[in-house]
Amino acid sequence: MTDKKWEIGLDGYPVDPNHPWYSRESSTPLEDFIARELDQCKRSWEGGNFPALSDAMKICSKYDKILPSWANQAIQKQLLKIFERKPEGKHGRTANPKSSYRQNWIHFQRWATVQELRERSDELREMGYKARWTDDEVFLTASDGLKGQPGAGSASAIRSSYLKVQMAFKEGGDPRPYTFSGAY
């Protein structure tokens, strides 16, 4: 029986993915190193060392590894804290990322309602509505249609939101709000 010779790459690891080094039964020195480093990061994080979470992310990124569940959960908690935190001295509808997101979502919902009324005018005419609306009429109709919903507002508020979204589109942005997956 002949022993198979394995080609070793410039990084010092076997090139062939079927090399026993890569088998599931045994780990490589690199995998052992990564596991030790991530375990140290976890212990440090649990001990209150905030930068350990960043180190875990860097290790996983550098070695193309999946972030451990403890780090994933910690990141989600930290992002949620940032999302909900209200900076000192800021008040109102855009005081923190969460309220800013909500206000942008309301602007977009109002814009989408006006757009739908304009785009479906033929269909709405067949249902007995006017064929075409003036700007004032379309904003008033949108206001009536949004009553009882988060995007509810006066015709002038609908107009203001509509213009904000239109401006964002013209400036090359995408004002459509991201829809949460419900993971929180």
Tertiary shape: elongated
Approximate helicity band: 55-70%
Radius of gyration equals: 28 Å
Terminal-residue CA separation: 58 Å
Using DSSP, what is the number of strands?
0
Strand residues, percent = under 5%
Characterize the main sheet: none
Structure annotation, total helices: 7
What is the ordering of alpha helices and beta strands?
HHHHHHH
Structural class: mainly alpha
Model regions low in confidence, pLDDT < 50 over at least 5 residues: none
The overall number of domains is 2
Arithmetic mean pLDDT? 83
Secondary structure blueprint with pairings:
Blueprint: H1 29-46, H2 51-62, H3 69-84, H4 97-119, H5 121-126, H6 135-145, H7 155-170
Structure description:
The longest helix has 23 residues, at 97-119. The chain has helices at residues 29-46, 51-62, 69-84, 97-119, 121-126, 135-145, 155-170. Helix 1 (29-46) runs antiparallel to helix 2 and helix 6 (135-145) crosses helix 7. The protein has 184 residues and is mainly α. It has two domains: 20-84, no CATH class; 97-170, no CATH class. It has seven helices and no strands.
What features would you highlight for this structure?
184 residues, mainly alpha
Short description:
Helices cover 55% and strands 0% of the residues. With 184 residues, it is mainly α.
